[in-house]
Amino acid sequence: MHQHPWIKSYPPGVQWDAPLTAMPVQQILDDAAARWPEQTALEFMGKKTSYRELQDLTNRAAAGFQKLGVAPGVHVGLFLPNTPHYVIGFFGVLKAGGTVVNYSPLDAAKVLEHKVEDSRSDIMVTLDLAALYPQMRGLMGRSRLKKLVVGSLDEMSGHPQAVRAHLQGAGMLAEVEADDMQMPFSALLDNDGRYERHALPASLHDAVAVLQYTGGTTGLPKGAMLTHANLSSAVAQIMAIVSGEPRVLEEGKERVLAVLPLFHIYALTVDMLFGLRLGAEIVLHTRFDADAVLKDLAAKKITVFPGVPTMYTAILNHPDAGKYDLSALKFCGSGGAPLPVEVNQRFQQATGCSLLEGWGMTETSPTGTFTPSHVPQRAGSCGLPTVGVTMKFISVDDPAVTVPQGERGELCIKGPNVMKGYWNKPEATAESMTEDGFFRTGDVGYMDQDGYVYIVDRTKDMILCSGYNVYPRVVEEAIYEHPSVSEVSVIGVPDAYRGQSPKAFVTLKQGAAGFTLEELQAFLKSRLGKHEMVQALEIRQALPKTPVGKLSKKELYAEEAQKRSAG
């Protein structure tokens, strides 16, 4: 019998030591195609793709990638929104024997170039959109990028013109050049689907399926090596959890609304991989729009909807929310940021479905904790450690010391879902692990007597904006490029919609002209991603410093907290 304190709080039917079978990630799709060949796997803007068709498309993508040289050890980038191109490209790369590298359309040009070079991506899949194609085309010739595979929305939608308008607005398609440095996505698929199957290592924990970049306090992101075992184990963990929920999900009968971006680890695992494992119909949305989401939740009788707190807040605050029948919902997950208890209560009253909050990280694929629905939510808790993982809390001052249950410390996690390490960064990998093999998360929290986890602080200098990690140092470095700026400190301040937003405190160079928030945002537009953009500005005569002269943020956090309590 295991002595982990959280097991006693598990829902009936959920077993901590449930078998978590690891498998090649592409097997998730192939198994589903064998079980439900004629059922719809993807629905995108009016066009439905069956599991049999999706399997065939991914086989042809694999053969096409192999003609381009993709094999074990070759990294292929995906720079795509939520369209069928992403799903086909993802599984095509894995079947070809390669490794997927996810790229975010939110990234600034400097970060994209860093990821291309750091990950050693030679091939990139993207779309013919002005927000995507020119950025990657611009990297050809000045980075190691050698080949672009460029998709078109016409080939994957039942209503291509409507999709174009939805994504970018009229006239926002890129001028795609024809040359030997790129090829159409349709040409990648123009074959019979016969590809060479490469055997994976005996231990699937050695086989890297995805390089998923995550930020760091050093400013440039690190690639978390997520193996076939990591990702398939994470899916198995979710399956084990939902089997114990009162509104049990039925394999082959559910519909998942995929609004979260698939290039993000949360959606990659919970929307796509879990959705396919479940044999669900995955309804793809390219971005979050409360109108479109409400309409689809009701009209398409969506049963599974993973989201972030800002999405649920927007849905609840929509003026027509009460007009839609959302009673088909069975399983709604919330992650990426703390979920306010009030939002959960209001959502349950409106839909009859609980928001099941969880905590996780890119490095954990991203499973970590889950909240059972059979008991009331505990305010401030992100739930119980998930199936098959072990957690402990270590002293922030002395990592060799494990603190007693109930005391605050740095959360550490061990399990089959925890990454192999950081790509090409053995020192960073070593620093992130304890001597007994636990991953140090950088989150400070504690576990109560019933095994529920509470996150109270961060050891890492990070802001959570709508579920995205924003690193103050990255924002500060961009602001320092402004010719008038002498010093800058950026902190996260509460934001009713995004959870947190960056606020900049700035001192000016002698004789330099000041500037408004809007002027600063205009200056930063090409230097930062949208999710990193400063939302508040204060220009001061001086910034707080430590006795040794380092800029200090604790005084700024204290001042902001005092303003809120006084206001």
Primary descriptors:
567 residues; alpha/beta; Rossmann fold; Luciferase, domain 3; GMP Synthetase, Chain A, domain 3; eight-stranded mixed sheet; six-stranded antiparallel sheet; 16 helices; 25 strands; globular
What does this entry look like structurally?
The protein is α/β, with parallel strands linked by helices and 567 residues long. Among the domains are: 48-199, Rossmann fold; 369-458, Luciferase, Domain 3 (Luciferase, domain 3, Roll), CATH 2.30.38.10; 463-566, GMP Synthetase, Chain A, domain 3 (2-Layer Sandwich). Helices cover 29% and strands 22% of the residues. It is built from 16 helices and 25 strands. The strands form six sheets. The chain has an eight-stranded mixed β-sheet, sandwiched between helices. A hairpin with a 7-residue loop joins strand 8 (208-214) and strand 9 (222-227). Helix 1 packs antiparallel against helix 2 (51-67), helix 2 packs across helix 3 and helix 8 (228-242) packs across helix 9 (265-277). The radius of gyration is 23 Å and the shape is globular. It starts with 24 loop residues before the first helix and ends with a helix. 49% of the residues are buried. The mean pLDDT is 91.
